[in-house]
Amino acid sequence: MGKEASAMVARRSTSRRDWRRWWWWLLPLACCFVCWVASSAATVAPAAGVAVTSLPGFDGPLPFSLETGYVEVNESTGVRLFYYFVQSEKDPDVDPLLLWLSGGPGCSSLSGLTHEIGPFQFAAKRYYSGGLPKIIYQPETWTKVSNIIFVDSPVGAGFSYAATQEGSKTSDTKTVKQLVIFLRKVA
Question: Which family does it belong to (predicted)?
């Protein structure tokens, strides 16, 4: 009886390891599928954003092109995803477009824009002394060679919101569908 039980446990742990191995193949495949669906979409009216030329705390005009805005991804529930678009500083027409989604879930992509790969960051100070934080240009930015859209997703993350309580309900499936609609509208 002991040998049978240990053999059963070994089979279960092996099947779990197999699933984990396949999971790492399925995730990139799912991402490729989302990109393919978005790229093969019918033409939809582009999103209207606002060009940002200066920021409080930043000295002078921005040395890069920044656009922010909302894209409605579900009319019936009023779901609107907020985005930041930073144009490549090298050759925007040729350079690739990256979609940045912060992990969490529920984390704003503002963290990626200001703390990870974006073109500016908050000046590090040991102690906060009040007032506006100083913003400085980040010369080692991914926007030197790529266009990047930072999206607050799923709905409820960052500045993204829903006009109805029904629209605030999220799931992986809803989030992916909303991102596909978002990409179709901004493409």
Answer: Belongs to the peptidase S10 family.
pTM value?
0.73
Q: How many domains is the chain built from?
A: 2
Give residue-wise pLDDT tens across range 45-63: 345 699 999 999 999 999 9
Is the CB of residue 21 less than 8 Å from the CB of residue 27? no
In a shared domain, residues 89 and 166:
yes
Reported confidence tier of residue 104, pLDDT bands at 50, 70, 90:
confident
Quick: pLDDT tens for 124-139.
777 777 888 899 999 9
The crossing angle, in degrees rounded to 10, of helices 172-186 and 2-39 is: 20
- Distance, C-alpha 56 to centroid of its chain: 24
Sorted by sequence, the CB contacts under 8 Å of residue 115 that are 6+ apart come out as: 121, 122
Residues 164 and 115 grouped into a single domain = yes
Closest C-alpha among 58, 153, 72 to residue 112: 153
Co-location of 68 and 160 in the same domain: yes
Residues 6+ apart with CB under 8 A from 153: 81, 101, 109, 160, 175, 178, 179, 182
Are 156 and 97 members of one domain?
A: yes
The tens digit of pLDDT for each residue in 137-181 reads 999 999 999 999 999 999 999 999 999 999 999 999 999 999 999
